[in-house]
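Q: A reviewer asked whether we had any structural model of the full assembly, not just the individual parts. We don't, so I'm hoping you can provide one. Inputs are below.
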Amino acid sequence: MSVLEVSDLEVYYETESAPAQAVDGVSFSIEEGENLGIVGESGCGKTTLAKAIIGILPDEGYVNRGSIEFDGRDLTEMSEAERRRYKWEEISMIAQSAMNALDPVYTIHEQIVEAIETHRPGTGRTESNEIVAEMFDLVGLDPERADDYPHQFSGGMRQRAMIAMALALEPSLVLADEPTTALDVIMQDQILKRIGEIQSDINSSMMVITHDVSVVAETCDRVIVMYAGKIAEEGPVEEIFGNPYHPYTIGLKRAFPNIRQSDQDLLSIAGYPPELTDPPSGCRFAERCPIATDECRTVEPEAQQQGDLRTYCHYADEIDDGFRSRADDPETWEETEAARSTRSAAEVNN
Ligand SMILES: Nc1ncnc2c1ncn2[C@@H]1O[C@H](COP(=O)(O)OP(=O)(O)OP(=O)(O)O)[C@@H](O)[C@H]1O
Ligand SMILES: [Mg+2]
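A: Here is a predicted structure for the entire assembly that you could use as a starting point for your response.
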């Protein structure tokens, strides 16, 4: 059964010019106990999506359209007071910037206890204290340090405190936004294992936002690749990384360090994602895509099903091993419009 069902979601930010279409027509669901990864370049709307789901968009951010059904109810239709009950208790978030998410004037202990007591009014102080100590222990923090203030923690410790707080109320959905970026590789590994254990204990689902493909490979069942506010491709983790159909996923795969082929040169995709206040009308990736045609530049692609993959590309069914092997060649990415415009900008500057 789906825990979360997002349909045709648009999340915009007011800006001085036009609204920034940070999340634009996004639909997906997360099943009970499932881990869904969200990957994509910086600025493609991952954090915005998570904030819209838990309901912590800043004042200038708003849901323009679409629905977010959690447990069968549309969160976008609820009053603030009603939504507050879901926060932390049912849906929690491990925020990308742990410093901003923790309140600087309360100790970590006070913050977790306050969350527990607000959402579970019957809980006595002794029990809350026990939960805090247990959670600290689980994320590898010394329970004695619980009385510290956030600024007394290192970045990695704050991130672990965030994780402790996000899991303390055993929520059914955890939104983890770059949950382990401030941690070293050994700690990262331990924490991911611990999160996995707690999760299977409480049967919660997780949405994992990350730049780190090894984190997705290790923790997720399914992956969504986002590009400029939209879903480019979605499917089981082995297929997204093994045999993708979207040229962006194929390019992205080459841009990530590969665990198995670490000697391979990393390739970047020339150019940048488009301005979200004025996105192109066709496929948002067209300018950087080696196989884009006029159709791509004018008509927005619908989803195409390729086996278990959902791919938003006009030419998904024509992507074959020919393109996949060409994609390994740096020249393939040097002939895109974005690469040409980057080159001519460099000429102007010289
Ligand atoms: N408060 C805001 N006002 C206006 N635009 C915003 C605001 N917050 C984010 N944006 C814009 O929305 C888009 C998506 O931002 P978001 O933070 O969701 O990206 P992201 O995918 O999480 O990136 P990263 O990987 O760098 O964390 C970006 O273009 C960003 O500039
Ligand atoms: Mg982000």
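A: Points you may want to mention in the reply: The radius of gyration is 21 Å. The chain has two domains: 2-224, 243-349.
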